[in-house]
């Protein structure tokens, strides 16, 4: 892991229209170094994806600042994204919606190669990236519908990495995959990002996978970070009551063959009253 900071986000607030407006993210800060994988975990609705879209520049935060490689991240508009910001790449949950069904997959991976070349990097070929993600290089001429879900996600990863990103934002990238491929795809992403010297924000509700691949973890609840720190340390001795409840809900039967009981509404109501825990 490098000392170079690729992402530095401060006090992010994301609101969605409503009466009153919905506060999806409430004062979240995070930092990612080159070569580092940082995981964002929490229940559905905790604000994880809203953080991802804000740091990737897809949505504009209502408050706070996102800096990438030292410069401000501006939200996407009708204009083409600034050349330097193509070094932020995102992998979405469902590759079927992020791949164009009418274009050959090799051409789509070439889009990433073009983005890298525009930033002055040496060119590469789609076949090289197919090989890196464990796909048959002869498949570059096929269309998305000719691949399984796991293979399509690998193509989406290949396209993102072909842009030679400094930051990869992965929003639930393995949740649509079958259990047999989830861990391998997540580990593949971590290894390739590390190889490129990039940082990765990995968002997932699969805590077992996060434990294996993340250097640091941020635990979110109700739009706020409840606990953050070294992943191994959090798993060994979670300090915030929400983190303890989240880890306790992992479906691993106890000695009597039972699964831990879900927290009560009263217990949940106290979580946000406990100060956040940070390293």
Give an account of the 3D structure.
The protein has about 280 residues and is an alpha/beta fold. It has one domain (about 5-275): Rossmann fold (3-Layer(aba) Sandwich). Helix content is about 35%, strand content about 25%. The chain contains 10 helices and 11 strands. The protein has helices at about 50-55, 95-100, 105-120, 125-130, 150-160, 180-195, 205-215, 230-235, 240-250, 265-270, and strands at about 5-15, 20-35, 35-40, 65-70, 70, 90, 165-170, 200-205, 215-220, 225-230, 275-279. The strands form 2 sheets. A 7-stranded mixed β-sheet has the order 6-7-8-3-9-10-11, sandwiched between helices. It has a 4-stranded antiparallel β-sheet with strand order 2-1-4-5, with helices on one face. β4 and β5 form a beta hairpin. α3 runs parallel beside α5 (about 150-160) and α5 runs parallel beside α6 (about 180-195).
Tally of distinct domains: 1
Number of helices: 10
Helix content: 25-40%
Q: For the terminal residues, how far apart are their CA atoms?
A: 18 Å
Q: Report the biggest beta sheet as strand number plus sense, adding barrel if it closes.
A: 7 strands, mixed
Instruction: Write out the CATH superfamily name.
Output: P-loop containing nucleotide triphosphate hydrolases
Query: How are strands sequenced across the largest beta sheet?
Result: 6-7-8-3-9-10-11
Q: Quick check: average pLDDT?
A: 89
Q: Tell me the overall shape.
A: globular
Low-confidence stretches: 256-260
Kindly provide the name of the CATH class: Alpha Beta
Structural class call reads: alpha/beta
Q: How much strand content do the residues show?
A: 15-25%
From the alpha carbons, calculate the radius of gyration and give it in angstroms.
19 Å
Let me know the number of strands: 11
Please identify, by name, the CATH architecture.
3-Layer(aba) Sandwich
Keywords: ATP-binding, Nucleotide-binding, Transport
Family: Belongs to the ABC transporter superfamily.
Protein name: ABC transporter ATP-binding protein
Domain ABC transporter: 7-247
């Amino acid at each position: 892991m490098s000392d170079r900071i690729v992402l530095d986000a401060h006090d992010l607030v994301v609101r969605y229209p409503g009466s009153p407006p919905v506060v999806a993210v409430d004062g979240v800060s995070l930092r990612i170094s080159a070569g580092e994988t940082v995981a964002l975990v929490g229940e559905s609705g905790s604000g994880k994806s809203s953080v991802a879209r804000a740091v990737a520049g897809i949505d504009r935060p209502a408050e706070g600042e996102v800096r990438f490689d030292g410069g401000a991240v501006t939200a996407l508009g009708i204009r083409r994204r600034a050349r330097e910001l193509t070094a932020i790449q995102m992998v979405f949950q469902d590759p079927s919606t992020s791949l164009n069904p009418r274009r050959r997959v090799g051409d789509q991976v070439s889009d990433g190669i073009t983005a890298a070349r525009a930033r002055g990097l040496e060119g590469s070929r789609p076949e090289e990236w197919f090989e890196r993600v464990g796909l048959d290089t002869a498949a570059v001429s096929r269309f998305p519908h000719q691949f399984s879900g796991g293979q399509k996600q690998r193509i989406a990863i290949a396209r993102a990495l072909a842009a030679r990103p400094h930051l990869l934002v992965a929003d639930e990238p393995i949740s649509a995959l079958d259990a047999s491929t989830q861990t391998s795809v997540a580990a593949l992403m971590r290894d390739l990002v590390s190889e490129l010297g990039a940082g990765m924000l990995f968002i997932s509700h699969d805590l077992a996978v996060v434990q294996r691949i993340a250097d640091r973890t941020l635990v979110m609840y109700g739009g706020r970070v409840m606990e953050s720190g070294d992943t191994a340390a959090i798993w060994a001795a979670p300090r915030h009551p929400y983190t303890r409840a989240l880890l306790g809900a992992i479906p691993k039967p106890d000695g009597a063959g039972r699964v831990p009981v879900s927290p009560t509404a009263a217990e949940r109501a106290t979580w946000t009253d406990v100060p956040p825990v940070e390293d």
